[in-house]
């Protein structure tokens, strides 16, 4: 039954919605992500030095970007890419690029709307995300509550249990560690980070994401450059497989293209999360910013996650398998580990294991903030309506925090096949209210008109 619901929710129609809204925003912006690349690059990475001038203790734009990357860079960059190449062939990478280019504008739109409609609660903390612009922009608070509920469920499943399970399994496979021991230690470390609030989460993400991603990219480049003579042929196979000239007259070729498109697009969406609305929540704590600037940071995150990290993983796999990932006999994380180990030996396997654990940990702390924001919003609305007061109390304060920590520990010691599918279902359902808002609030999404290299900041 659950599997059937999963197939219905994540059917082709949802992928069409994801891509359709991204295409509309791409056209509306005049292909901003491509045409104005120098501008948005300087407004994001190029503006990091200026953040040194911001008030000490404030959450910076770069920190929110790292927190958002912590939520998106994860198992999808290692497992998802390998699965896409195995099932869809080299052409899947091309369609991942396409999904990323389209998703950049979806991420921009939802993040911009989030900053535009955000507000401070009674404690002076920002409340931001699709639930806010569903309520204040579309004037449909019930949709905001529905989105918040789905977000909380995803945080307890995909955000905590699934990620901690990956860490425990990796430790058990690599070092023979007992899941219970890993669970206790991991839960303790997560506790130390999340009890510091968004400030500490942002601070840890700011240090963890660049270091872990940097090391992974460095070793990926070592493997790729060791096969530099294969690179032209690999890229030729990517484009040839994605756009086979005989597709119009060959059913087999047409089937091959459809599989490349299906797996490339779906894994791209899974990896960068553009369209789910999560980036709108994670950027909400940034100070001294504008909706347009945070939108461009969201664009950068999709670019970094899919165009850079996923591409490097794909090139490592294609170089080490001669462009035939399906013929290697491996899939998922095992395929990625196998390819790194072919060039780096035992170090390659340890590298993939370490990357999996660091990426998963970063996702855990980022998704705590996502779930905490959604639970706070939902609790406040339930209290206002005078219904489900017990549930409102559970969602408020530290109750959700301890519930989340319990999910982290449980994920280490339990089998999670059902949790995986349920979390995927919640993920898909979470996207629906957000996509509806992106459609109906389209007129409110504007794009920067500044000159190349001009850095603009402001208060919101």
TrEMBL record:
Signal peptide stretch: none
Example of a GO MF term: amino acid:sodium symporter activity
Membrane topology per record: Multi-pass membrane protein
GO CC terms, sorted: plasma membrane
Keyword Cell membrane recorded: yes
InterPro entries with a match to the protein in the record: Na/Ala_symport
Keyword Transmembrane helix: yes
Cellular compartments annotated: Cell membrane
Highest taxon of source: Bacteria
Alphabetic keyword roster: Cell membrane, Membrane, Symport, Transmembrane, Transmembrane helix, Transport
Primary site of residence: membrane
Segments passing through the bilayer: 12-34, 94-119, 140-161, 181-201, 208-228, 302-323, 350-370, 399-419, 425-442
Pfam families from the UniProt entry: Na_Ala_symp
Family recorded in the similarity comment: Belongs to the alanine or glycine:cation symporter (AGCS) (TC 2.A.25) family.
Listed PANTHER family: AGSS FAMILY TRANSPORTER, SODIUM-ALANINE, TRANSCRIPTIONAL REGULATOR, LRP FAMILY
Protein name, entry field: AGCS family alanine or glycine:cation symporter
Organism: Hungatella effluvii
Taxonomy of the source species: Bacteria, Bacillati, Bacillota, Clostridia, Lachnospirales
């Amino acid at each position: 039954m659950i599997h059937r619901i999963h197939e219905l929710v994540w059917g082709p129609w949802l992928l069409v919605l994801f891509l359709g809204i991204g295409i509309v925003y791409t056209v509306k912006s005049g292909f901003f992500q491509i045409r104005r690349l120098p501008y948005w690059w300087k407004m994001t990475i190029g503006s990091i030095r200026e953040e040194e001038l911001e008030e000490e203790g404030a959450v910076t734009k770069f920190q929110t970007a790292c927190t958002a990357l912590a939520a998106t860079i994860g198992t999808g960059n290692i497992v998802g890419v390998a699965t896409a190449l195995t099932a869809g062939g080299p052409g899947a990478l091309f369609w991942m690029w396409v999904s990323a280019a389209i998703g950049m504008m979806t991420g921009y739109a939802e993040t911009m709307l989030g900053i535009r409609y955000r507000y401070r609660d009674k404690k002076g903390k920002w409340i931001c995300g699709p639930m806010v612009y569903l309520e204040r922009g579309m004037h449909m608070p019930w949709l905001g509550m529905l989105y918040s509920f789905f977000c909380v469920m995803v945080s307890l499943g995909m955000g905590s249990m699934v990620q901690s399970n990956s860490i425990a399994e990796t430790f058990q496979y690599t070092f023979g560690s007992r899941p219970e021991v890993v669970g206790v230690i991991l839960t303790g470390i997560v506790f130390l980070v999340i009890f510091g609030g968004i400030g500490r989460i942002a601070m840890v993400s700011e240090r963890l994401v660049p270091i872990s991603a940097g090391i992974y990219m460095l070793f990926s480049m070592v493997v790729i450059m060791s096969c530099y003579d294969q690179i032209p042929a690999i890229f030729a196979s990517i484009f040839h497989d994605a756009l086979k000239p005989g597709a119009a007259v060959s059913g087999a070729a047409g089937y091959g293209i459809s599989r490349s498109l299906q797996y490339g697009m779906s894994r791209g969406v899974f990896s960068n999360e553009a369209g789910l609305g999560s980036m709108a929540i994670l950027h909400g704590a940034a100070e001294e910013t504008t909706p347009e600037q945070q939108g461009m940071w969201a664009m950068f995150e999709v670019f970094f996650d899919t165009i850079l990290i996923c591409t490097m993983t794909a090139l490592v796999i294609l170089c080490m398998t001669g462009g035939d990932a399906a013929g290697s006999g491996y899939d998922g994380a095992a395929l990625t580990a196998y390819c790194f180990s072919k060039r780096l030996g035992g170090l390659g396997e340890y590298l993939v294991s370490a990357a999996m654990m660091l990426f998963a940990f970063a996702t855990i702390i980022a998704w705590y903030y996502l779930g905490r924001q959604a639970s706070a919003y939902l609790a406040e609305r339930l209290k206002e309506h005078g219904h489900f007061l017990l549930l409102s109390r559970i969602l408020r304060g530290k109750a959700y925090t301890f519930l989340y920590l319990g999910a982290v520990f449980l994920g280490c010691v339990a089998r999670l096949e059902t949790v995986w599918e349920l979390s995927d279902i919640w993920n898909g359902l979470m996207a629906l209210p957000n996509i509806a808002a992106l459609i109906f609030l389209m007129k409110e999404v504007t794009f920067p008109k500044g000159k190349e290299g001009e850095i603009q900041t402001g208060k919101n």
